[in-house]
Structure of ElaA protein:
Amino acid sequence: MNWKIKAFDELTVHELYDILYLRSEVFVVEQNCAYQDPDGADQRALHLTGTDDDGNLLAYTRIFPPGVQYDEASIGRVVTSPGKGRGKGIGRELMQRSIDAVQEYFGDVDIVISAQAHLDRFYTSLGFRQISDIYLEDDIPHIKMKRDH
C-alpha cells in the first residue's frame, strides 16, 4: 500500500475524482443511500489515501482539525474499496494511520467520529468509546464515538 495525506488544494483532479468515485460507490450505491456526499467540508479536511502499486484507490478518510466538524478533531468518510480493499486489514491500517495523522498535524487531542453502529466493536478496538445513543444519519444507524488523547 502507498499512503499519502494531502490538503484539498494539493489533490490532483485525478485523485479527487478517485476519492469521489469511491465514496459514491460505497456510501451512495452500495449502501443504497441517496445523499449529497460533497458537503462543502472537503476543502477544510486533510485527505488520507491508500493506493495499490497500480495507483488504484483502496482506502480513504478525511481528517478535520478541532473546531471544524466537532470541538474535537474528527475522522470521517472512512471507506475501503469493495472490490480490492476489504478483508485484508486495510481498514484497520487506514484508521490507525488516520489517528496517527491527527496526532502529527493537530497534536495530542481527542478524536470524535460518527460511526455506523454495526462497526462499534471495530472502532472500540482502536480506542474509541460510544458517547451517544444510536441516531439515524441518512437512514443508517450511527453512534458518536470518542477517542481520548
Summary: The chain has one domain: 2-107. DSSP finds three helices and eight strands in the chain. Helices lie at 13-30, 90-106, 120-124.
